Each structure stands twice: as C-alpha cells, then as structure tokens.
C-alpha cells in the first residue's frame, strides 16, 4: 500500500504519551477485539521513539507504526506518526479503508489523551487554589496524599495513618 505520515502537537509530556502507547490493558481486558492480530514492539527508545509491527492473521495486512516524540518550545510534544502498510492485495479499497480507520482511531486516541491530561491539570490547579484559601494545613496534606494515590494508583496505608489521615478515607 503506502506510507502515511501525520504530525500532531500535543500539550502532554512525552513520557505520558509514550506510556499510553505502550499500555496493553485494552488487549488484556477485551481480547475478543484482537483475535488474529499480533502486535509487537520493534524499536523502543524510551520517551523519544517507539515502533510497532502489527500483523493480521495470514499476513493479509502488515502495519509498521512509528511514533517519534520531540519536545516543543511551548510545553508540549510534537508527535510524528508514520505508518507503512503492506498488503497481499494491492489497491483493495476495503483494506485501505480498514487501515485509514485504524490511523484515524490512533490520532483520535492521542487527542483524547491530551483532553484528559489538560482537564486533569486544570482541575488540580483549581483544587490547589481552593486549598490554599483554607487555613487547615491537614486538609492540604490530605489532598496531597489523595493526589499521590490517584497518580500512583495504590495506597500506602502506613503513610496515611502516620499523617493521621485514616479517618478521612471514609469520605471518599
């Protein structure tokens, strides 16, 4: 088929984009959507470039996807997305449509990642501003701990108890 290249500028750090692309939870939670598809990492330069090779059963379609990340000057990341598609059947409109839909889904996912990241940053700033208006230092400490729990994804109970926050968790 052909090589297709798209460039996006996202207001998301490159390490977050990199981790999102490497995330395999979708394949694990919904394996029925990935029957007959083999996807593996071909090249991996942490937070700079990652390349995937996706092959359908019978090698009917092979897509080599390369994502290159560059830090832009306005606190964002330039993502260059290059797809090189090979197919057993040349000029097959149905196969080209499948590949173009795949590319559109990847680009849409990256844009949604940016939307979620920006909304999270704005929400954190809004909450931080309201916390500083309060005089209760324990509340600020509680918020910092809960934010860490949300980011890290697990709770260190000893740390929460040490700061006297055990009872606060009931209100979550």
Structural commentary:
With 172 residues, the chain is α+β, with helices and mostly antiparallel strands. The protein folds into 2 domains: 3-119, 2-Layer Sandwich (Alpha-D-Glucose-1,6-Bisphosphate, Chain A, domain 4), CATH 3.30.530.20; 134-171, no CATH class. It is built from 5 helices and 5 strands. It has a 5-stranded antiparallel beta sheet, covered by helices on one side. A hairpin with a 5-residue loop joins strand 4 (61-71) and strand 5 (77-87). The protein is elongated. It starts with a strand and ends in a 10-residue tail after the last helix. Mean pLDDT is 78; it is low at 147-172.
Q: How would you state the average pLDDT, rounded?
A: 78
Classified by CATH, the class of the largest domain is Alpha Beta
- Structure classification: alpha+beta
Radius of gyration: 21 Å
Number of DSSP strand runs = 5
CATH topological fold name of the largest domain: Alpha-D-Glucose-1,6-Bisphosphate, Chain A, domain 4
CA-to-CA gap between the ends?
Answer: 52 Å
Helicity range: 40-55%
Strand fraction band?
A: 25-35%
Number of helices: 5
CATH superfamily of the largest domain: START domain
Shape by Cα distribution? elongated
Q: How many separate domains make up the residues?
A: 2
Low-confidence stretches: 147-172
Order of helices and strands: EHHEEEEHHH
